[in-house]
Amino acid sequence: MKTKELVCIGCPLGCSLKVAISEEGIMEVAGNTCPRGADYAKKELTDPRRIVTSSVKVQGGHLPCVSVKTETDIPKDQIFACVRALKDVVLTAPVEIGKVVAENVAGTGVNVIATKQIYAE
Predict the structure, then answer these.
(1) Is residue 71 a contact partner of residue 111, using CB atoms and an 8 Å limit?
(2) DSSP state at residue 85
(3) pLDDT 10s digits, 42-68
(4) Neighbours of 119 (CB within 10 A)
(5) Cα torsion at 102, 107, 109, 112 (round to 10°)?
(6) 110 CB contacts (<8 Å, ≥6 apart)?
(7) Are 37 and 14 contacting, i.e. CB atoms less than 8 angstroms apart?
(8) Could you report the per-residue pLDDT of 6-29, keeping only the tens digit for each?
(9) Pairing of strands 16-21, 27-30
(10) What is the pairing mode between strands 90-92 and 53-59?
(11) Residue 86's CB: how many other CB atoms inside 10 A?
């Protein structure tokens, strides 16, 4: 039986998790204080995913860039591809919160959206 140790990011508590993995792949999670810990550990060890936050350039706005994020989590191994895809994106003000900045970013099936409103100068 293998053992993995993780720190849960499912809630602000940051529980120290110990995951025992049997030869059959069955996982037993200990150390979590809420049910989200067990779900997080299992997902992290089988299909790790993350929300990506970044910023993109804005022309003609009251600020030079806008904060953006993926609408949902994407596979962890696609984070750098997602950021590279945003590198050359330039928006024109005004930019509304929720505006789709990049569709199907890096082939993940997930859109990137603006998280701040940028007014035109």
Answers:
(1) yes
(2) H
(3) 999 999 999 999 999 999 999 999 999
(4) 12
(5) -20
(6) 70, 71, 72, 73, 74, 104
(7) no
(8) 999 988 999 999 999 988 888 899
(9) antiparallel
(10) parallel
(11) 18
